[in-house]
Design goal:
The chain is an alpha+beta fold. It is built from 16 helices and 23 strands. The protein has helices at residues 4-20, 55-64, 112-123, 127-133, 157-162, 175-178, 245-253, 268-272, 303-312, 315-322, 356-366, 382-385, 387-397, 409-415, 463-474, 478-494, and strands at 23-26, 29-32, 35-39, 69-71, 77-79, 82-87, 93-98, 136-143, 146-151, 195-197, 208-212, 236-239, 259-260, 277-280, 287-293, 329-330, 373-378, 402-407, 429-435, 498-504, 508-511, 514-515, 529-530. Helix 3 packs across helix 4, helix 9 (303-312) packs antiparallel against helix 11 and helix 15 runs antiparallel to helix 16 (478-494).
């Protein structure tokens, strides 16, 4: 007979073996653990979704953290962690009460003080948050569940900003973590969201593990966009950052993984023909390729040099190089996105048509003397890899000396935060992609923020753009806002902050038994089941 201690050891060994096979041990019976294995668009190296705008970190944030408000599938603002909101008759006091059942992953209750600290940290970093905070005279927790805003002028920006769907998302964190300056990365990843990040199982470059948070209490409403009940229907999600996209597609076709967030467009036909795989679009509003200048250093400290590229570039070359199939892209001159509420082509006449003669004229006027332009080139994201070589070719066609330096995306993300000169480890330009949810109006559009040192990497500094962004935030009618958008686009031409290089959509690929993917603009893993 076994002794009690020996029986315990054997039972523990068997349980460990069962767990290693993806099973859970319960009493005398083993039950299959539901594990969704997904290939994200990038490896995850930075875990602070306020410190960086990188979408892989935003996606990590949606796994681990929750928000006070969220946008539903129709774009309406809905409460998420909040239960009730009241606004005083004069519009200067907004009071929010947290809903019941909110708990941090460590078991502590979520308090209003936690949320105040989180709003303040996000509001010091994010373009929309900064603009919102300019209306705030005071922000405090008046009791454990009540957040009170005192404003200096009425605005509808508070709940709109707190429902911001993409980078930087105003995720709520415990006050002790939110006390970290936004210029520094957090080191504690405790959240209150539907999943728990298993830092102890994290294998950078290989596997990121999230487990269902048993203490999460979803809202009662059905899931809609990023709003409603975040009901988790799997036990675990494992992100597997496979860099070779053909390898990832082969793994999906073989049933070794369940989901690929962003397969390259040239592999979509291969996936379409497999009856065991389906393609879905979680971001039908699309994305915008974007060339970003660093205005701190020559030559792009001179607006004429930036204007020169508005003439030298054309969108067709960029979208063809990456997407290729016209089903998935659109030539779009609207700074705030085509098909969006503030679509406008004001001030766009003659731009992005590869008018090399005009570009060379502006370059000559700028006094450019042939110094190298350090263009950062991301090599490991299929949707970005081909963009920098196209830019290099077009820039060299108008006489610029381009030093294109290749690196993986996470290295680029770290380097773009450096203000040093290119010779000292900084940079002059890079190309990225934004979802339209990040740029659909002048306050949300982070690259338009021209507030100097508090602007995003690239650090544009222009009083006229900032005056107009502030006027947009104070406007009380859509008609007035649209007029301001036209003025902003004219100001942007005078002081270019970035260049929009075409609008595109993608598809996620998954096994037929995976269902419930929501149209959110970001891939989220609540509501997903595996039947």
């Amino acid at each position: 007979m076994f002794t009690t201690s020996r029986r315990s050891l054997v039972r523990g060994a068997v349980a460990a073996m069962v767990m290693s096979l993806g099973l859970t041990f319960s009493g005398s019976a083993a039950q299959a653990e539901t594990v969704l294995r997904a290939v994200p668009h990038s490896d995850l190296k930075i875990l602070d979704p306020i410190w960086t705008t990188a979408y892989i970190t935003r996606n990590h944030g949606y796994m681990v953290y929750d928000t006070l408000f969220a946008l539903d599938a129709d774009g309406n603002i809905q409460p998420q962690m909040v239960d009730t909101v009241t606004t005083s008759d004069d519009g200067l006091t907004i009071t929010m009460t947290l809903r019941d059942g909110l708990t941090w992953h460590d078991g502590a209750p979520v308090t209003a003080a936690d949320c105040v600290a989180s709003i303040q940290r996000w509001g010091s970093k994010d373009a929309m948050g900064q603009k919102m905070m300019s209306f705030v005279d005071s922000l405090e927790a008046t009791d454990d569940k009540t957040i009170t805003f005192k404003l200096n002028a009425p605005t509808g920006l508070v709940t709109l900003a707190l429902a911001k769907p993409s980078s930087n998302v105003p995720f709520m964190m415990p006050a002790r973590i939110a006390a970290t300056p936004s210029s520094e990365q957090i080191s504690d990843y405790t959240g209150s969201g539907p999943f728990v990040f298993r830092a102890d199982l994290w294998e950078p470059g290989t596997k990121i593990v999230y487990e269902k948070f048993a203490g999460y209490v979803p809202r009662s409403e059905p899931a809609s966009g990023l709003a409603g009940g975040k009901v988790v229907k799997v036990d675990r999600v494992e992100w597997m950052p496979i860099r070779d996209q053909q390898q990832a597609v082969n793994a999906l076709k073989a049933g070794e993984i369940d989901f690929i967030e962003a397969p390259p467009h040239d592999l979509l036909p291969l996936l379409k023909e497999d009856a065991n795989i389906k393609l879905e679009d979680f971001n039908p509003a699309g994305n915008q390729f974007t060339f970003r200048f660093n205005v701190l250093h020559p030559p792009f400290d001179n607006p004429k040099m930036r204007q020169a590229l508005l003439y030298a570039f054309n969108q067709e070359d960029f979208v063809q190089a990456v997407v290729g199939d016209a089903e998935y892209y659109e030539i779009c001159l609207a700074l705030f996105g085509c098909g969006m509420p503030f679509e406008s082509t004001a001030a766009m006449d003659g731009l992005l048509e590869s008018n090399f003669e005009k570009a060379r004229e502006l370059i000559a006027e700028s006094g450019y003397n042939g110094e190298p332009i350090l263009l950062m080139h991301s090599t490991d994201l299929a949707v970005l890899t081909n963009l920098a070589p196209v830019a290099k070719d077009l820039m060299e066609a108008v006489g610029l000396n381009v030093d294109m330096q290749s690196m993986d995306w996470q290295t680029l993300v770290a380097r773009r935060a450096k203000k040093e000169s290119p010779a000292e480890g900084g940079w002059n330009a890079f190309i990225t992609s934004w979802t339209t949810g990040d740029l659909f109006n002048p306050v949300a559009a982070a690259f338009l923020n021209s507030s100097c040192d508090t602007a995003l990497f690239g650090w544009p500094c222009d009083a006229r753009i900032e005056e107009l962004r502030d006027a947009f935030a104070r406007a009380t009618t859509v008609e007035a806002q649209k007029q301001i958008v036209d003025e902003i686009q004219a100001a942007w031409f005078d002081y270019p902050t970035h260049i929009h290089l075409g609008q595109w959509t993608g598809r996620a690929a998954m096994k037929q038994n995976v269902s419930g993917l929501l149209q959110t603009g970001a891939p989220v893993f609540w509501n997903i089941s595996m039947n």
